Amino acid sequence: MPQERSWFIAIGKLPDIRIARTPPAHLQWLPMSTTGERFERAVAIMERLRAPGGCPWDREQTFDSIKPYTLEETYEVLEAIDNRDWEELPGELGDLLLQVLFYSEMAKEQGSFSIDDVLDRLSRKLVDRHPHVFGDTKAETSADVKRNWEALKVEERKKRKKEVEAGAAEDSAAGKSAPSILAGISSAMPSLLEAHKLSSRAAQAGFDWPDMESLFEKLGEETKELREHLQEFPAPGPRPEGRGVAGSGRQIIPEELRARLEEEVGDLFFVLVNIARYLAVDPESALRKTNRKFRRRFQWMEQRLHERGSTRENASMEELESLWQEAKHQEKRL
Predict the structure, then answer these.
(1) Which one of 25, 89, 189, 222 is most buried, counting C-beta atoms within 10 A?
(2) pLDDT (tens digit per residue) in 143-195
(3) Do 241 and 249 form a contact (C-beta atoms < 8 A)?
(4) Contact, 179 vs 201, CB < 8 A?
(5) Which 3-state string (H, E, C) describes the chain?
(6) Residue pair 233/191 in contact by the 8 Å Cβ criterion
(7) For the domain 3-129, what is the CATH superfamily, name and number?
(8) Nearest residue to 8 via CA among 36, 24, 21
(9) Can you give the pLDDT at residue 208?
(10) How far apart are CA 180 and CA 207, in angstroms?
(11) Band of pLDDT at residue 31, cut at 50, 70 and 90
């Protein structure tokens, strides 16, 4: 057995092992000869952290307590990709992989599944969804792959339909309703992503707008409905909340009207998500990039005001708008 392999196995057994960013010389990482050994080392470290005598914080965690970190790490991966920060991305991907190892270790402890089950399912899915690579199906271009994928989905739907019909017959006899086509789409995900998945799943069942023009018509319809509700808005009409203490200057809006306005704004978002879907644009990514663009430009404005000895509070709207336009021009020159 290679020396590094022996050391790697021992790491999970030493009661006083500590993994630090810069470990002592006698605990420096020894080179692993294969990807598999590297993966097994990470699994063993996770197991050691959760074991008796391991890390108190890691041992206290549950599926629910780890969920927020999973979302946070996912967004940090996306941010590194958006920034084209290839030096940072491996670390962020490692943090995301840690979430998978964490869930798998906790599941193994309670006897639900293990990391082996995760890897087996992944491998089966990759093989099943790529018959042009692992089977006899032919696909020379990405368009061929897409056509094959659509055919696979048709077959999967037929199989699922038979299973659903069989289950529905049993459920009907037991007084239960058939499962929804939207089942399995988590309501805990970001709302833009959830809207995208809901509309995509509905489109698979034939419930979709026929073309982009229909979507723009729907956008106009929803905008009109929102404007109609705004006619009931208390005088002097909608306006930004005042500066100063949070909540000061807030307009009093009847709760029933507020609920209708919220619904109409939500409808507008849903139509915009479907426009993005038609254009093959990820709405979450698109809005995130716009948020960063706004942050970048606004901070540039703040810096210019600081150089002038001024502040946001003292600047007029005309001065802020002029700086905003200048910030946009600055970016175009880069």
Answers:
(1) 222
(2) 888 888 878 877 777 777 677 667 666 655 666 666 788 887 888 788 888 99
(3) yes
(4) no
(5) CCHHHHHHHHHCCCCCCCCCCCCCHHHCCCCCCCHHHHHHHHHHHHHHHHCCCCCHHHHHCCHHHHHHHHHHHHHHHHHHHHCCCCCCHHHHHHHHHHHHHHHHHHHHHHCCCCHHHHHHHHHHHHHHCCHHHHCCCCCCCHHHHHHHHHHHHHHHHHHHHHHHHHHHHHHHHCCCCCCCCCCCCCCCCCHHHHHHHHHHHHHHCCCCCCCHHHHHHHHHHHHHHHHHHHCCCCCCCCCCCCCCCCCCCCCCCCHHHHHHHHHHHHHHHHHHHHHHHHCCCCHHHHHHHHHHHHHHHHHHHHHHHHHCCCCCCCCCHHHHHHHHHHHHHHHHHC
(6) no
(7) MazG-like (1.10.287.1080)
(8) 36
(9) 93
(10) 14
(11) low
Q: For residue 81, what are the contacts with CB-CB under 8 A and spacing of at least 6?
A: 89
What whole-number distance in Å separates Cα of residue 175 and Cα of residue 157? 24
Q: Higher model confidence: residue 179 or residue 265?
A: 265
Q: Where are the domains of the chain?
A: 3-129, 133-173, 294-333
Tokens coding 193: 């992503």
Q: pLDDT per residue over 87-102, tens digit each?
A: 999 999 999 999 999 9
Q: Is 332 exposed, middle or buried (0-12, 13-18, 19+ CB in 10 A)?
A: exposed
Which residue type is seen at 221? Answer: E
CB within 8 Å of 194: residues ≥ 6 apart: 185, 186, 187
How far apart are alpha carbons 8 and 49 in whole angstroms?
15
Q: Which of 272, 168, 158 is nearest to 212 (CA)?
A: 272
- Enter the tokens of residue 159: 């199989």
Q: What pTM did the predictor assign?
A: 0.58
Higher pLDDT, 301 or 248: 301
For residues 190-223, b (16+ Cβ closer than 10 Å) or e, as one string?
eebbbbbbbbebeeeeeebbeeeeebeebbeebe
